[in-house]
Amino acid sequence: MVPLLEVHDLEVRYGKALAIEQVSLTVEAGEIVGVLGPNGAGKTTLLKAISRAVPARGGLTFKGEDVSALPVHEVVGRGICHCPEGRRLFPELTVRKNLELGAYLRRDRAEIAADMERVHTLFPVLRERGSQQASTLSGGEQQMVAIGRALMGRPALLLLDEPSVGIAHKLKMMIFGAIEQIRRDGTAVLVVEQDAVSTLGIVDRVYVLEHGRVVREGTAGALKDDDYIRQIYLGV
Ligand code: ATP
């Protein structure tokens, strides 16, 4: 069976600087895959290249189809939704309106309503805060809106860029729990993180990116036992 997402030998340059090179990875349907790495390793760039927000060289196939030359909105239409670093909400708009914007390409009203219900079940606080301006929410709640908005595109693959950054521990645990629920609901997840401990607790497989290259890959179980990972990423 072909993987849901297949990235082959991907390369992104910003001017002359190489941000990622020779990056190959796969995500199977139903998987949670993590990408770990330090600041500046190229994690955000990798997600942007997959969602076609930055130009890249190399292979990019989704559900067996070459998507390496598609514009962003067509990639979204195929089922890849990106929840960016820093959330990028519309601060003046209400929580509900921000969520609705995630469905901007869709016309299936009944299904959109069903997905809104699903997001509210995943993050009940967003139902309570629906008419509040997004800017008035806490950082963790804003992250929930950003994830919910991406889910409103009904993705087969959700790209999550550092969902736990700058968030209080309790909300962080809630967000990692939500990622597991999203997978149970049938959406595969590719999550970029710096929190190795929490990430290894929920993912099936991990790629470790350093200086734009994959330096380790394997199942979460195998990487938890890898001396290099234990020392550098887990601090044990
Ligand atoms: P962080 O965890 O800090 O977000 P990251 O692993 O996501 O880091 P990227 O943001 O992908 O890393 O950055 C990879 C490299 O590309 C870095 O050296 C960064 O300075 C550079 N870079 C990122 N965006 C641009 C840009 N728009 N123009 C020029 N260089 C960039």
Automatic annotation (TrEMBL):
<keyword id="KW-0067">ATP-binding</keyword>
<feature type="domain" description="ABC transporter">
    <location>
        <begin position="5"/>
        <end position="236"/>
    </location>
</feature>
<dbReference type="InterPro" id="IPR027417">
    <property type="entry name" value="P-loop_NTPase"/>
</dbReference>
<dbReference type="GO" id="GO:0015658">
    <property type="term" value="F:branched-chain amino acid transmembrane transporter activity"/>
</dbReference>
<dbReference type="GO" id="GO:0016887">
    <property type="term" value="F:ATP hydrolysis activity"/>
</dbReference>
<dbReference type="InterPro" id="IPR052156">
    <property type="entry name" value="BCAA_Transport_ATP-bd_LivF"/>
</dbReference>
<protein>
    <submittedName>
        <fullName>ABC transporter ATP-binding protein</fullName>
    </submittedName>
</protein>
<keyword id="KW-0547">Nucleotide-binding</keyword>
<dbReference type="InterPro" id="IPR003593">
    <property type="entry name" value="AAA+_ATPase"/>
</dbReference>
<dbReference type="InterPro" id="IPR017871">
    <property type="entry name" value="ABC_transporter-like_CS"/>
</dbReference>
<comment type="similarity">
    <text>Belongs to the ABC transporter superfamily.</text>
</comment>
<keyword id="KW-0813">Transport</keyword>
<dbReference type="GO" id="GO:0015807">
    <property type="term" value="P:L-amino acid transport"/>
</dbReference>
<dbReference type="Pfam" id="PF00005">
    <property type="entry name" value="ABC_tran"/>
</dbReference>
<dbReference type="InterPro" id="IPR003439">
    <property type="entry name" value="ABC_transporter-like_ATP-bd"/>
</dbReference>
<keyword id="KW-0029">Amino-acid transport</keyword>
<dbReference type="GO" id="GO:0005524">
    <property type="term" value="F:ATP binding"/>
</dbReference>
